[in-house]
DNA sequence: CACCCGTGGTT
DNA sequence: TAACCAAGGGT
């Protein structure tokens, strides 16, 4: 065995031993595995979400619900409210379902095949839990791994068509031992050095193995298909207040902001034609416009104050103290509307 | 495979 | 500032 036989995973793991990020959901140095509950919770929170955004939520959740059994017993409503602001709210509904399933099973299953059957656990998360929490060899492919592998092998085919090739290449460099550390090392490398823009190849432990680096323009990988334009929608939300309280509804489980508390609205279908329907008749005073950008459209939502002598519409809801709206767990769009209205009401 | 589903930070 | 990006999953 010569030094030139050192594999990519050897080099990466040696780098990780020195440069691993210290994160609240990671095992302390010296303890190889960590609590599957914390691994699962962090992985779900981290789906399409930055480490910085997750940290305070992870701390809040683990303090309030220290175990999967505790979370399994929590009312869904409480979990949804605690999740407010993190986004992708189907994750919160699936979190409760998954916790109850795992608690019923006496704990999380240890194999990818079983893990992927759980609600909110897809191919990535199943592999990550199997590798990180249970020490199994699993090929963990997230956006970081896609980027690192695309550069290492200078994959010319654009995403998402290149996913099959990327998975094969990732599998070829995944070690039998320390697959969990390897996965986290790939993610740390992708987050810090092999970053989406302006990669710092001078610090990269894999530069000598990188075909993208050899090509002199590693940053052009991964090549991606063009994205669709983001349309702008208009809509209206209604502020209906009386006696220091305001009317909140619970949104349908499916669709935008599913299952979250909110102000009644017109469905945001209304364009300039004003085709939306108010929850009750009467004169309305426009308090202002809230602008908010979602993944696939932007929204300009008028906030209209309605006469409080009328009773609210047919949609089920509850009167909520205006001076305690923070505890309602409103998603950001409606939190913006609340701060706009509360300042004037 | 294409589309839907949040949010906040960065350039 | 408009666009891009971040430890994806469900349908």
UniProtKB/TrEMBL annotation:
It comes from the Bacteria. One of its GO terms (molecular function) is 8-oxo-7,8-dihydroguanine DNA N-glycosylase activity. SMART domains: ENDO3c (SM00478), FES (SM00525). Keywords: 4Fe-4S, DNA damage, DNA repair, Glycosidase, Hydrolase, Iron, Iron-sulfur, Metal-binding. Residues 45-192 form the HhH-GPD domain. It holds the Pfam family HhH-GPD. SUPFAM superfamilies: DNA-glycosylase (SSF48150), Nudix (SSF55811). InterPro entries: DNA_glycosylase, Endonuclease-III-like_CS2, Endonuclease3_FeS-loop_motif, HhH-GPD_domain, HhH_base_excis_C, MIG/MutY, MutY_C, NUDIX_hydrolase-like_dom_sf. The keyword DNA damage applies. It catalyses: Hydrolyzes free adenine bases from 7,8-dihydro-8-oxoguanine:adenine mismatched double-stranded DNA, leaving an apurinic site. One of its GO terms (biological process) is base-excision repair. Binds 1 [4Fe-4S] cluster. Its EC number is 3.2.2.31. Its cofactor is [4Fe-4S] cluster. Adenine glycosylase active on G-A mispairs. MutY also corrects error-prone DNA synthesis past GO lesions which are due to the oxidatively damaged form of guanine: 7,8-dihydro-8-oxoguanine (8-oxo-dGTP). Belongs to the Nth/MutY family. This is Adenine DNA glycosylase. It comes from Pontixanthobacter aquaemixtae.
